[in-house]
Amino acid sequence: MKPSTQQELIDRILAHIANGTTDTAAAERSVGTDDYLGTVRLEQELRSVFLERPVLLAHSSQLAKAGDFRTDEVHGRPVFAVRTRKGDVRAFLNVCRHRGARLVESEQGTSVNGFSCRNHAWRYDDEGALAHVPDQARCFSPSALAGRDLFSVPVQEKYGFIWAGAADGERRGLAAHLDPLGEDFDGYRFEDDTIWSEDRLTGRFNWKLGVEGFLEVYHFRSLHPDMKKYVFVPEVALFDQLGEHARIVAPKREIREVRDTPAGLRVLRPLVTVVYFVFPSTFVFVEKRHVTTLRISPLTPDTSEIRVLHIAGQDGLLRPETLRQNIALFTKVLSEDVAAAESIQRGLTSAPQKLLFGRNEVGLHYFRDSLCRAIEQSVGQSV
Ligand code: FES
Ligand SMILES: [Fe+2]
Q1: Residue 379: which pLDDT band, with cuts at 50, 70 and 90?
Q2: Are residues 140 and 256 in the same domain?
Q3: Residue 350's pLDDT band (boundaries 50, 70, 90)?
Q4: How far is Cα 134 from Cα 113, in angstroms, rounded to an integer?
Q5: N or C: which end of the chain has fewer CB within 10 A?
Q6: CB neighbour burial string for 238-252, b if at least 16 within 10 angstroms, e if fewer
């Protein structure tokens, strides 16, 4: 993040603290519950919102050397990504082109000789080309095998992360979607960090309820009593849009100590948690010395998967024990957020009503507007 942006954000936070204010939307907003329910809405979102946009697949250090691979689900489809011998990352649908079996079964690993299907042993190289078919001469003519390479999935390595899209979306290109984050992300040098640990869980809530739980800080004091250990300034947060994405800054109490520090000597990162929301469903939490990413994927209208990565530098400044404590607290807080989302989901189905977004829940207003805009644009493009 540029030094001038850091100073501006610190000034805005200090002004809010002095005035007892926070960033707000212009007015409250009521929202119907139908958007959280039913397959029709989810299918529309998958088509109009997810298909075109990147989601976070991995940290670059998880595919560090040639042959390293990971399997995943992107937009409801099985994919795998691999670091090729040329050094770039490619991703493919994890579906054999013979008769459709799942090609790569392990969650992660290293393959030095491409990928072989367990079913009949068709083998593909690291660029997805069909490389070997057992008993080919007796079974398949060359023309029958033409065009039987793996289906490519758009993938982009940027800011130290690997991002994936859908096989048949991508009108703008993944990089263009990610560009608005560059002014902030370039300065962090996430590519110098290394994966520490990862986590995965599923819950019974619509994916948007999961996202919304990380777009406002209003719930901190009530839902997360242990957050006192984080020493956040209660009820104060900054909200800014970065293109389609968003940045939320939650200040810690130490920020008051830099009130009289000359602007050029103030550094933002140790004084706050910066939460980036990469529309539509990825979060990047920038902490003092480590980074946590979180991706929420819809499985059904009322079940979602959350994948978490914890990433840290190798500069020796972060003690492993401190990182372990931070991750334990994050995991506990996440379980509280998931329980809240599940509770809301049950409430929506048992008592349909208009929900109310407060002026202080400005991230929820932004998210709702962004979803509507993405759906409208998609419908406009397809007519
Ligand atoms: S289904 Fe993969 S080789 Fe037959
Ligand atoms: Fe929370």
Answers
A1: confident
A2: no
A3: confident
A4: 16
A5: C
A6: bbbebebbbbbbbbb
Q: Considering the entire predicted model, what is its pTM?
A: 0.94
Give the whole-number percent of the chain exceeding pLDDT 70.
Answer: 97
In this structure, are 69 and 39 located in the same domain? Answer: no
Residues 41 and 65 in one domain: no
Pocket of ligand 1 (CB under 6 A): 96, 98-99, 101, 117, 119-120, 122
pLDDT tens-place string over residues 86-107: 999 999 999 999 999 999 999 9
Positive or negative CA dihedral for 216, 218, 220, 222?
A: negative
Domain that holds residue 267: 3-52+180-382
Order of strands across the sheet with 68-74? 108-110, 68-74, 77-83, 89-93, 152-153
- The string of DSSP letters for 226-241 reads GGGGGTBPTT--EEEE
- The verdict on 84 and 149 lying in the same domain is yes
**313 is a domain residue:** yes
Mean pLDDT of 271-289: 96
Closest ligand 1 atom number to CA of residue 100: 1
